[in-house]
Amino acid sequence: MKKRLTSGWISSHMHRKIVTLFVSSIALVLILFCLAPLEKRTPIKNYHTRDNIYPHQPNREYLFYPANEELDDLQGRRFLKVKNLRTPKDDECQADPDGREKRKLLPNVIGLGAKKCGTTALHYYMTAHPKVKVSPDHEELAFFDKKWENGIDWYLDRLPEVAEDEIVFEKTPKYFVYPPALDRIAETVPNAKFILVICNPIDRAFSDFNHKVRKSSGFRNFLAQNQIQNFDDFVMRTSTRLRILKEKKMTALLENDLYNSTTNNGHLSILTVGFYSYYLQKFIAKFSRQQFLILTGEEIRHSPREVMDKVQGFMDLPRCVTGDNFVFNSTKGFYCVVNYKGEEVCLDSSKGTSRKGEEQKYLIETAEELANLYGPYNRELSKLGINVSWPFPTEEP
Ligand SMILES: Nc1ncnc2c1ncn2[C@@H]1O[C@H](COP(=O)(O)OS(=O)(=O)O)[C@@H](OP(=O)(O)O)[C@H]1O
């Protein structure tokens, strides 16, 4: 009897506990459900087409109506005619007046790359314009590549607040070559505009090689283990391997194996980033041609005024940055830029290392090998309507 009473008491006590637990969990779920809308969540799809319409929203009506063939010009040559540029009104080129309403916005202009082609110089030239705003310290935010999992609010937190006539610009050179970045950008900011800088792929590879030697102990170990002394050795070991790859294998390499730590192929990107037409074709297929401005590293280095005319025209901004903003620094061997606050900004000593001076820094055989590697990709570039001045064989082999 006692036993039965006890067990009866235990089970009714347990029963009450279970019911209480059940009811409180339901209540908790309901409370969380009611509170959920209070938490601020930024929608990730089609960001610029929802509440974030922007005066400089790309693809709005053009201020000047270019002829159709001009619209097709990926290199922005139409903006070299001053009549196609916007003359600034009154104080449009002054520093931003205080007290204006500002808000966070995802970039409406994205710098895609390519790495080591002068993307940082362009970034500084652009911020000489009072209407172009970037992340603090000009940081590459890498959101669409390695920081994607952090979420869109993480990205917004690191971007500047802007007034209604200002542009948000962010550049991360890996966006151009890291396969998932393209779909992520298309999903998030399908109406963004893109600025791509390409440069002689041989010089680019040389610059990238030296950069990796300076910055990466892993790369230095790789060179030591493989008894690779310099860029010439590196090219002779790797370029011929790449040149014999059939299309399927090359695609597997560019889409997966470069990023797969088990294949240990990461160093090949020193050469493959220069396959510009491969990457550009994928971007152009996802967006419209009018969303792109393609500049060359050579014009960034030698003709900054023309570059900024193209950039300001492309972004439909008043022409605040002119030739007067650029000062050639003969010690550095590069242009420095005077921004709208009157400060002269030169890039630090990590930039302007391999291209300083005109002397050849690698063997002629190395240049020939790389000309063969890049020849087919350069021919594709010209089929896309992009003219460059790099000396490459033009005939099919
Ligand atoms: N105005 C000015 N000042 C300094 N450097 C200039 C400038 N214009 C172009 N360059 C060239 O830019 C090269 C670096 O390219 P990136 O900025 O794209 O490199 S990075 O991808 O951000 O690391 C850098 O390459 P290296 O010469 O190999 O250092 C420069 O040659």
From TrEMBL:
Coiled coil: none annotated. The keyword Transferase applies. It comes from the Eukaryota. Transmembrane segments: none annotated. Its EC number is 2.8.2.-. Keywords: Glycoprotein, Transferase. InterPro entries: NST/OST (IPR037359), P-loop_NTPase (IPR027417), Sulfotransferase_dom (IPR000863). Residues 109-361 form the Sulfotransferase domain. The keyword Glycoprotein applies. PANTHER family: HEPARAN SULFATE 3-O SULFOTRANSFERASE-B, ISOFORM A, HEPARAN SULFATE SULFOTRANSFERASE. Belongs to the sulfotransferase 1 family. This is Sulfotransferase. It comes from Oikopleura dioica. The lineage of its organism: Eukaryota, Metazoa, Chordata, Tunicata, Appendicularia.
